[in-house]
Design brief:
Helix content is 51%, strand content 8%. It has a 3-stranded mixed β-sheet with strand order 1-3-2. The two termini are 14 Å apart. 31% of the residues are buried.
Length: 176
């Protein structure tokens, strides 16, 4: 599945060394983490008929990271001596990260402004509607994103080969 995810990352315009980690539990949507790592919800693969929702969430995570550096959350949490240790030694102590993952997953996911998202979807040539329909914590999809979807009535290039999507889904179902 790594080759399919790597191809998807290129298609969306993620940094070349970006890794995508699919999580079974604890995350809704996608979240960019420090070190060009994106964690993504398994349901965006196993529960979808095509890769558009997954691509949309990955793209939204990329846009969010461009406006708010993922390292910022760690730096805000760490004490001054821990930040100094990171800057001088290149590492944080395990105590500095204690509970960080749980807090990060418990927080409401950030979402860029609709205008910013729509510009990103247009540039990447990905439909916004599947993303909007799968946003976490919302009973109804954001109507503004759906109505302004640049590919609501226009075709868009394939997000990934159908065989890659099926293989990725099968792996997620088998291990999910």
């Amino acid at each position: 599945a790594e080759a399919a995810l790597h191809g998807l990352a290129r298609r969306i315009g993620l940094p070349p060394k970006t890794r995508i980690a699919v999580l079974r539990d604890g995350l809704e949507g996608a979240l960019m983490l420090p070190g060009d790592l994106i964690a993504v919800d398994n349901r965006l693969i196993a529960g979808q008929s095509d890769p558009a929702a997954l691509a949309g969430h990955l793209l939204a995570a990329k846009i969010t990271a461009e406006t708010t550096d993922p390292m910022r959350a760690i730096m805000d949490r760490a004490s001054f001596p821990e930040v100094l240790s990171l800057l001088t030694r290149g590492a944080l102590s395990p105590a500095a990260l204690q509970g960080f993952g749980e807090d990060l997953l418990a927080a409401s996911p950030q979402r860029p402004a609709d205008k910013q998202l729509l510009q990103g979807f247009t540039t990447a040539r990905i439909p916004a509607t599947p993303y909007a329909e799968t946003l976490p914590g919302s009973a109804t999809a954001p109507v503004a994103l759906i109505e302004a979807d640049p590919f609501r009535t226009q075709p868009y290039p394939p997000i990934m080969a159908e065989r890659d999507w099926i293989a990725l889904q099968q792996i997620c179902v088998d291990h999910g």
